[in-house]
Amino acid sequence: MGKLSLRTSAIIRLTSNMLRNNNVIIHIVSIYVFVHFGRMLGSLASIIPERKNAHHSIRQSLDSHDNVEVEAAIFAAASFSSHSNSFKIAVKKGGNTKHLENIKKLKDSVKRLAIQDLKLLAKKAPHLWTRKNIQVLCECALSTPYNSLKLGMLSVLSTLSGTIAIKQYFSPNTGEASPAPHHTDLVKLAQECCYHSNLAVAAHGITVLTSIAISCPEKEVIQLEQETVMGMESLILLCSQDDSKTAQDTLKTVLTSLVKMLKSCPHLSQSSVELLLAQLHCACDSARVLMCQALAAIATQQPVLAEGMLGDLLDLFRVASHRTSEKQQELLVSLATVLFVASQASLSAEVKTVIRQQLENVANGWTVYRIARQASRMGCHDFSRELYQSLRTRVASEHFYFWLNSLMEFSQAEQCLSGLSDGDYSAAMSAISEALKSYQKGIASLTAASTPLSPLSFQCEFVKLRIDTLQALSQLICTCNSLKTSPPPAIATTIALSSGSELQRCGRISSQMKLSMDEFRSLAARYADLYQSSFDADYATLRNVELQQQSCLLVSYVIEALIIDPQTASFQEFGTHGSVLAESEYELKMLAVFNHVLEEVENLSRKHPPVSYLLAFSPSPRTPNEPIPVQNNQQLTLKVEGVVQHGSSPGMFRKIQAVCLKVSSTLQTKPGSDFKIPLDSKTNEIEQKVEPHNDYFSTQFLLNFSILGTHVVSVEASVVDTSGIEWKTGPKTTVSVKSLEDPYSQQLRHQLQQQQTGPQPGPQRNIGPRQ
């Protein structure tokens, strides 16, 4: 019996070691060893009922994922339970504990999934949330003692707070009075969470309270504004000195809510800006970056950064240049941006000197480029030109050199256009002339900077449109000035009456104004084409392009109204004072549209490679210039395949839902004179939308070429995004098809021609009298 027990113990130890081994082969072998040994253990349970290592091996195998091993362990466990009370109790206790743990995990997963679904519903369909739904969620969040559950429900309320659901919550039901915001559970929950020990919960509480303060009724707004700002200030003071990720995420959320709050409550801007400036001195570098970004966002909304604050900002810029943290370079960019905003596009010599010295000492080339880009966006074109010029010699690539040189020339051009005064048309003409010179140099450098991988098509087209717009404005000023130098002749009224055209009363200026009107409409159409081809552009760039298009349309409409119906553009009935104010408002708006274009066009300095395609046709010509032959009584099946090539960040602003392929054919060579051209078969025009799978798409077109001759088939691709908007991204590819007459028709045509001309006379013999 002792020898058997020793051998059994040895087998148990060996099997346990094999089961714990990470080697796959050994583990599989151990399972089958345990299967046979487990049945043997069941038979030996009466001999070794209290063997602890046998108990451990059986309990471990009960949790196995292999069904065969579990069955063997169950057989052994049943045998040991009948002979060992300790093993029976251990198995029951372990099973109950694991059962409770599984139930707890299941409950947690159900709660987590329910909160995720609620958040998705709040994001996709906020209009479905009633006041009762939000109230139930608030009561549950107020009563739960668990921070994780409270955080999940607050995230749902935070998503709902920026939607129409909040207005529905505070709107009274039919026959009920409007609920006071302070007496609602939603406000109580937000106020309670603003000072919560969990920073993530506090951040969501601030977000909800900010949205309530912005959208609540006017009579209750003052007290809620003060409470919201106090909660924001406490979190800013707490998180600005903590460089942990949780604290910085909370600070970013609070500062975003602060910018949103000050946009709707501008009277609170000054005190908030002073708090941020004071906290900048004692905050950590990562918090300083976020606070500087918030300061710049607030200052772009309202001019709250006074000249007296420039001294503190310059001191902070000097201090930042001496720090050695990893956030130093980003902090320099953020502080420089705040300085540009505070200077209101007119940097003093002192500010330029301080920034230039610190950049020469510690800044790398990428930081200098980012600061130059921010100077361009904020209207400091003179300083950005200097920075671009200094960077040209610090790049190793020829393309980068031409890129920086083009930005330098564009900044110089925009600097020529800044500082123009109203009514000084001669200065405006000189400024436009100088700007056009710099723009022409810049477009040449920009073309040289393009490569096959980065063609810069959007940038080049936008600058060309900018040049043409300035030329159109210059021509419009010259046309208006020509009215003084070349007024209508004395017989203009007689000419208008005799010709029946009222436009002749204005003389030659009417035809010139019509040309200007057509030119501005053409520019608007080109801006619209550029908009539709910019699938990968950011929203600020698209907004700027659309603004330029609407401005050109506005100028053309004004010219049309002045020429066709002058009464609609007359301000005489409003008096002299009203006329002057109206003209001044108009001039200010036009200057705001056409000046400082580089301030918002981020795509000129932040390149997003556009969406492109690789298209292939089947059948394809054997040589590039050889047409594809097809008989005129047959139809050609053209198969178009393609692969979508994304840029560096696909789907950043919009995603591709389908690729729209348009196929059209035109007759290039004229058919013979003996053929009649059917009116319905001159061209093929077919359009199909294909949904790409893994960026691959394929479709077929059935084309008819019944007219003999060479046809040019054009295939143009465009993109349809998830919103259903079509973007004309291109490309447009052509292929030649030659339509040949089928042999049977050719034979019939030859027989018909022979019948119409009759039999040909044979050769005549010369018959004469014999000599």
Automatic annotation (TrEMBL):
Assigned keywords, A-Z: Cytoplasm, Membrane, Nucleus, Transmembrane, Transmembrane helix
UniProt-annotated stretches for the region Disordered: 741-771
Residues in Integrator complex subunit 7 N-terminal domain copies: 39-88, 106-379
Gene Ontology CC entries for this record: cytoplasm; integrator complex
Domain Integrator complex subunit 7 helical bundle stretches: 381-561
TM region positions: 24-42
Biased composition (Low complexity): 746-765
Main localization, broad class: cytoplasm
Annotated Pfam families: INTS7_C, INTS7_HB, INTS7_N
InterPro entries: ARM-type_fold, INTS7, INTS7_C, INTS7_HB, INTS7_N
UniProt subcellular location: Cytoplasm; Nucleus
This protein's record includes keyword Nucleus: yes
One GO process term, biological-process aspect: snRNA 3'-end processing
Integrator complex subunit 7 C-terminal domain sequence ranges: 615-727
Cited PANTHER family: C1ORF73 PROTEIN, INTEGRATOR COMPLEX SUBUNIT 7
Similarity section: Belongs to the Integrator subunit 7 family.
Protein name (record): Integrator complex subunit 7
